[in-house]
């Protein structure tokens, strides 16, 4: 009996130790499983992140962005600049990539990069000092063109039909989406049913490079609107000081564009228009009559002046309802920075010289002298 009583506590201790060992093994197994899972998750996440960072920022965005690489820039500084300009996703990944590939000899200079460029293309460009990609299509849109004329230019340069282009830019849902995308440039006012073409005046005159052979209408319009926004943005504070909305300023710029060619004359004519508006006088500018008529004529006749249209500035005592064409940047500059005067009239002689007058009598005398 005494021997049996002595063995029981030992067995109990063994059972306890065995249970504790099992618990420890379970805890160790759980901890190891957690650690392995965490390592796996971190590894997979890191792999996905690095793989993503090695891809172009936006394979579909071929808009050229100017990037300046200063002389003496290190790889680290170049990587930071490229990330700031949104040309690469992660400067650290770029640095490791360059180190892994053993690349060097990057050149300073002003580059034109796109978000569609791969890291290899960027590295090659930085080593040669040149942009790797050449445009597949280049289209120049001159100043003073209407949307219909712009559509015609693209129809001759691409397979896009002029009618399809015009249908798209007159589609309300599409225009509304563009207003949402470019709220600093476009406003609901362009949806006024009396406006002939909502985007009239907003497709900037410039040379456009495309990196696809057949850009879509949406790609063309987006590129042109982005250019307009880039040009207009610095002048918006001055527009507000003048008491102008962006739409009014763009409308005024289109009038100035069509009335004069030199920067100085555009500033003088802008002032004439402002002076007339202040006096409650109609602007009486012939290009608005031609736009209202929807045709080009070498000479505007008196009967043409009678056309009833919110664009005809012989018919309305205000700015026309919207722009009549696109314009050059100096037309915008003239709009926000006119040359101060008391002039209310101007006329253009056959040699292109523009004469200004403060009174109707003075204007008529100059008209008899230089026109008749």
UniProtKB/TrEMBL annotation:
Localisation: Cell membrane
What Pfam families does the record tag this protein with? YceG
Q: Say yes or no: keyword Lyase present.
A: yes
Residue spans crossing the bilayer: 27-50
The chemistry this enzyme catalyses reads: a peptidoglycan chain = a peptidoglycan chain with N-acetyl-1,6-anhydromuramyl-[peptide] at the reducing end + a peptidoglycan chain with N-acetylglucosamine at the non-reducing end
UniProt KW keywords: Cell membrane, Cell wall biogenesis/degradation, Lyase, Membrane, Transmembrane, Transmembrane helix
Enzyme Commission number: 4.2.2.29
Q: What is its main location?
A: membrane
Indicate the annotated site residue(s) for Important for catalytic activity: 259
**Membrane topology type, per the record?**
Single-pass membrane protein
Query: What is the main EC category here?
Result: lyase
Family, according to the entry, reads as follows:
Belongs to the transglycosylase MltG family.
Q: What is this protein's function? A: Functions as a peptidoglycan terminase that cleaves nascent peptidoglycan strands endolytically to terminate their elongation.
This protein is called Endolytic murein transglycosylase
Q: Which organism is it from?
A: Pontibacillus chungwhensis
Q: Which gene encodes it?
A: mltG
């Amino acid at each position: 009996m005494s021997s049996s009583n002595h063995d029981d506590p030992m067995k109990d201790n063994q059972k306890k130790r065995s249970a504790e060992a099992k618990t420890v093994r379970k805890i160790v197994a759980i901890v190891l499983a957690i650690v392995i899972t965490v390592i796996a998750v971190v590894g997979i996440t890191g792999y996905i992140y690095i793989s993503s960072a090695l891809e172009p920022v936006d394979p579909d965005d071929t808009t050229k962005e100017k990037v300046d690489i200063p002389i003496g820039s290190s790889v680290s500084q170049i990587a930071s600049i490229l990330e700031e300009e949104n040309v690469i996703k992660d400067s650290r990944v770029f640095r490791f990539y360059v180190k892994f590939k053993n690349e060097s000899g990057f050149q300073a200079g002003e580059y034109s990069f796109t978000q569609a460029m791969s890291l290899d293309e960027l590295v090659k460009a930085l080593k040669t000092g040149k942009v790797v990609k050449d445009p597949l299509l280049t289209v120049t849109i001159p100043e003073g063109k209407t949307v219909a004329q712009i559509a015609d230019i693209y129809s001759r340069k691409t397979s896009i039909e002029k009618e399809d282009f015009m249908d798209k830019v007159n589609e309300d849902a599409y225009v509304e989406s563009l207003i949402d995308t470019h709220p600093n440039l476009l406003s609901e006012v362009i949806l006024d049913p009396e406006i002939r073409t909502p985007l009239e005046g907003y497709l900037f005159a410039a040379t456009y490079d495309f990196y696809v052979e057949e850009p879509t209408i949406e790609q063309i319009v987006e590129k042109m609107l982005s250019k307009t926004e880039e040009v207009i943005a610095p002048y918006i504070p001055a527009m507000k000081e003048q008491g102008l909305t962006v739409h009014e300023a763009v409308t005024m710029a289109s009038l100035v564009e069509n009335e004069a060619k030199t920067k100085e004359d555009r500033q003088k004519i802008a002032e004439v228009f402002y002076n007339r508006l202040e006096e409650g006088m109609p602007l009486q500018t012939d290009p608005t009559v031609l736009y209202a008529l929807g045709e080009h004529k070498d000479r505007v006749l008196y009967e043409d002046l009678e056309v009833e249209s919110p664009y005809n500035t012989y018919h309305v005592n205000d700015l026309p309802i919207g722009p009549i064409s696109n314009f050059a940047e100096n037309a915008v500059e003239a709009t926000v920075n006119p040359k101060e005067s008391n002039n209310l009239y101007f006329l253009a002689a056959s040699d292109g010289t523009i004469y200004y007058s403060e009174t109707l009598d003075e204007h008529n005398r100059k008209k008899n002298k230089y026109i008749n």
